[in-house]
Fold each of these.
Amino acid sequence: MTAPDQREHAEEQERPADPHHMAPLAGRLLEIPAAVVLVLMVGHVVANALLRWATGQSLPETLEITTYWYLPAIVLVGFVAAARRGEHVAASLLYDRMTTATRRIVDVATDLLVAVVCGAFAWYGAQEAWHNMEIGLTAGASVVVIWPVTFLVPLCFGLMTVFSLTTLIRRLRAGGRANAEDE
């Protein structure tokens, strides 16, 4: 390697990975289903409204399907997709006034707290999802089966746990920085 190549290679080695980066395929695996579900929900609700306007009759179980299938899928998958992109709401009023060292401590503590809380939600959600499957959970008094969608809770919170732990590990390896912008 020439001297400039060695410097560039050394800079790449020093630069920590972006904590919000996942393989593009993994991102699409999250966002495409959420977009499809959103389009299906809008189509379903519009079809229901048009049918009700034209005939006075609604599509059966539209409210239950929207409430117990579409919305949880959109919210939970969107939650993980937003974290993957680094687009969660940030309250930076105090954070921006902290020293770099304090920010690093807060970042590490936050990553750890998020991992623990999301891991707990995933664990509890998995137990509930299995229970819901065993009892064949339906949407209240309707016949709409909803237990399968409850498995999204442990899946999405499990992904958030892995994501937070990965971010934590990257941050610790980088001396508390998650990416080059932290400097």
Note: The helical segments are 3-14, 24-55, 62-85, 92-95, 100-135, 152-173.
Amino acid sequence: MPAVDAVITDSQQPGSDSLFGKKAAEVRAKATMEGPKGQSRVILAEMPLTQKEAELRTNMEVQAIQASLIRVGITYQGWLRPGVGGLWDLAVDYATIKSPMLFPTKEGQLRMKLWSYAYSQSEAGTTTTVEFVSEKAFAQKAADAKQNDGFLSNGATAAQAEAAT
């Protein structure tokens, strides 16, 4: 996915006697990101959405973009986490990936969040494949779709209602 500075979701919702016209036909939410200025990703919702649902859909798209920006997969021999032991835990595990070729910075490393893991066995032995993504992919929003729940901050603003034009 390309980097963008805004994610916009357009939708509509079913009308009723009290909800009709533009308010029902033009539901829009927008979130801004740290990306190239002037490049937006506009999503036409897959189904009718309320305003809150459009905000949640927009926030999910921001997280998907962040997850796709940096993704590292590693396969190693054995079941246990290298250096610390124990099995991987999606809820809490991070790793510092050291690779000057992947991360051309002074340190040549990046702290990343565990995205997935798979254990497998074959005649050659046991292997574990782990996949890591940028911490920004895990910025969560609270149930109201507006407040950050404090887990991580991804530099993007929460989706806000916006008038469609």
Note: The chain has two domains: 6-69+143-161, 71-133.
Amino acid sequence: MKRLKVPANLAFVDTIAGWSMRYAYAFPGVARPPEGYPVNEEWDQLYEGAARAIQIPAIRQVVEASYDRIFIDEYQDCGDSQHLLATALSKILPTIVFGERFRPRCCSKGCRWVTGLISLSMIPAFLYW
């Protein structure tokens, strides 16, 4: 961002975990986050809760008003619940995923190869780099 001279106040960088924590704990009634800091499988509960929260129209409007687009790096390392959240976000804002070509995105049901244009049929709302 510095190289492109984008002012720091115009960009916000966060992890999927950090972003999910903010939204899940901000809307606990719908997100049902774990109590305290998530451990082990509670991370899935957190990501799924954040995905549930952004289904609420008012919360969707907050996301739409707060961001112009979503970039997800190291997408091949996302698990099922993170993929669920990324897919939900992609229905609200343009979502661009970055990952290693020819490396599988693994999940509980096995691994799926994420390669170039093939990913567009797997996740139509994503742009893949």
Note: Residues 110-124 have pLDDT under 50 and may be disordered.
Amino acid sequence: MDAPDRTAPRDRPERRAWLRSRTLSLPGYTVHVLHAGTTGAGTVDCYRLAGGAVFTAVTALGSGLDARVVAAAVRTHLRAGARAVERVVSAPEVGDLDTAAAVSAFTHLAQDFDYPDTVVSLLHGALDPPTGTIDYVHADHGPAVLVHPDGTLAPLPATRPPLGPVPGPWAVQRTALVPGARLLACSDALLPLLGADDRGAGVAFLATHPHPQRWATALLTARERTRVHDDLVALAVHRHR
């Protein structure tokens, strides 16, 4: 019997895609994150914090460091930082906690990005359920849109360049979900699957497919058909009516 081939290239066309997803339910809200891919260069996370919820979508690109290691490091630092701040701050607000944790995490991760070809795009936010407010940082991660209950779209532009050799301020933005509204976001890996080259097409797709799990079936099929092998990461935050 032939021995298994352990030296085959990572990006061989026949490599099968896999899907990982997680759903977090809070009174009046659902947070759903998913990661579909073959390279492991993306990651997602969602968890409870100070009575609210935090969500993260990360995509790493580059040759300076293994993209999988960088993506995992960002996710781990953000979660660990939030937990550490939560323990020492009395009566914390989820948005304040998450902002402090994010700034600390990005500062300590700066050493990982001394390589000119390594960058990380991300969307990281914190939901405060009583008010529906979401504090977020959007580091050029891809299409993101707030869909109002009447179907009106409010795209969320990037607030800074990807984390990497190009410096930029970590500006925290705020938006809000009213009952029936939802926040949808996906990495730029969505665009070639749609045969598009601008994020407007991605925003339109997200708005007409409100649940990430439903994206997955269509997108994984398209992924095999188009031979696009970039990791796809996506998230949805829905406030119920």
Note: Residues 25-239 form a domain with the Phosphatase 2c; domain 1 fold (CATH 3.60.40.10).
